[in-house]
Amino acid sequence: MGVDLPPTGSAEFARWPGFKDRSFELPVFWLAIGRFPQTFQPEVLGLNLAMELSGVGGSYRRARLALREHGFSTRFVDLHNTIDNVATGHSAWAADAIDAFMSALAAGSGTETREAAWRRVREGYRSLDPPTGAHAWLADRRARRRHRKR
User: Fold this and answer.
1) Which of 106, 57, 111 is nearest to 85 (CA)?
2) Which helix (H) or strand (E) covers residue 13, if one does?
3) What is the DSSP code (8-state) at residue 21?
4) How would DSSP label each residue in 38-83?
5) What is the pLDDT of residue 150?
6) Residue 133's pLDDT is what?
7) In the chain, which stretches have pLDDT less than 70?
8) Which of 79, 81, 40, 44 is nearest to 60 (CA)?
9) Is 44:33 a contact under the CB 8 Å cutoff?
10) Nearest in space to 46 (alpha carbons), one of 103, 124, 126
């Protein structure tokens, strides 16, 4: 694609000016949450579902059009769109994992525990693309108030 990067093990690679700092925010988050899979199991399950669903139809379709427009192979996104499908692919497996987690939790838990687990799953899901700006701040503030009233 006409981009020459320094070797990945070099300091020059780490300092390469083509990298944007914000490009590392999500991968660093994934690495951090992945270090504690049992502690953050509900968040990991939610994040995994969001990740599997994120490309199906939408970004994979856009990537396919862009790759084709520039004369590159579309095989990677075509395969991923098929592999991650909602009916039987990775997206379905991710939803099944959440169902299994919640079913196991429900067996010996009260309503508050289940609600807290669902909240954590949703937070994990939302963490793939967290909202920003004034609307996000207000929504967070409302949610915290509601949670304190319980």
Assistant:
1) 57
2) helix 11-14
3) G
4) TTTHHHHHHHHHHHHHHIIIIIHHHHHHHHHHTT---HHHHHHHHH
5) 63
6) 79
7) 150
8) 81
9) yes
10) 124
How far apart are alpha carbons 133 and 91 in whole angstroms? 29
Question: DSSP assignment of 76-96, as one string?
Answer: HHHHHHHHT-TTTSHHHHHHH
Structure tokens at 103: 């079913």
Q: Give me the phi and psi of 45, to 5 degrees please.
A: -60, -45
CB distance 45 to 121 below 8 Å = yes
Which residue in the block uniquely carries the two structure tokens 């504690």? 36
- Looking up tokens 């856009």 gives 62
CB of 128 closer than 8 Å to CB of 47? yes
Amino acid in position 79: L
Looking at residue 70, what DSSP letter applies?
A: T
- CA–CA separation, 12 vs 95, rounded Å? 41
